[in-house]
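Q: Could you fold this chain for me?
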Amino acid sequence: METTPAIPQKFEELMKLEKIERHHLDILTTAEKAEFLQLIHAKIPNYHGEELDRYIEQTSALLDQNEVWEFNHRKIEVIIERYVKETGNMPSTSAIATATRLSRHTVRKHLNAVNQSPVVSDQNNGIALMLPRVMGSVLKQALQGDVKAARVYIEAATKQKQAPATIINQNNYIQINKTIISQQLVEQLTPDQLKKIELIITGRDIPGQQPEV
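A: Sure. Below is the predicted structure, expressed as structure tokens.
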């Protein structure tokens, strides 16, 4: 029967520190440092809620903060999408925290990071987080000939040029032959160019062809 390898004494002593700094690892060999850093990252999924917050604070000097942010982002995004599909409403911060097993503080901090404005509510920040995925889906339907989706996308893109929103790169794009149309590209188009695309999608640029209703 296999047993879990014992954690080296040096590692245990480091884990007892209130906050582990880079210089604390000077007692380790190069190989031990690599092993300890791997251990630090591997333990993240084992913590939840405020306990996870304390662990992140303790080991923040050793962690890849982008990795931590994306770890939280994926969990929050999945829960918001599932909740909206099931209820048609945005989940509260408490509901997201419960489902993701993150603390409410972490959820609120993450949602606020999506949209930096302090006056925007957590709920609206949740909407902002999901916007790229939703608009990517709408764009795909529009380019497949869905007139209603085209109208929604053109209207949203036009309004966005008047009041820019924070965009998170979700790698949403449509490729037609060798041409890639991304959300970022659409945002750079002028109102006249957007109108021309709308006419092409709806078929109103083709003589004798009537658009769908």
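A (continued): The radius of gyration is 24 Å.
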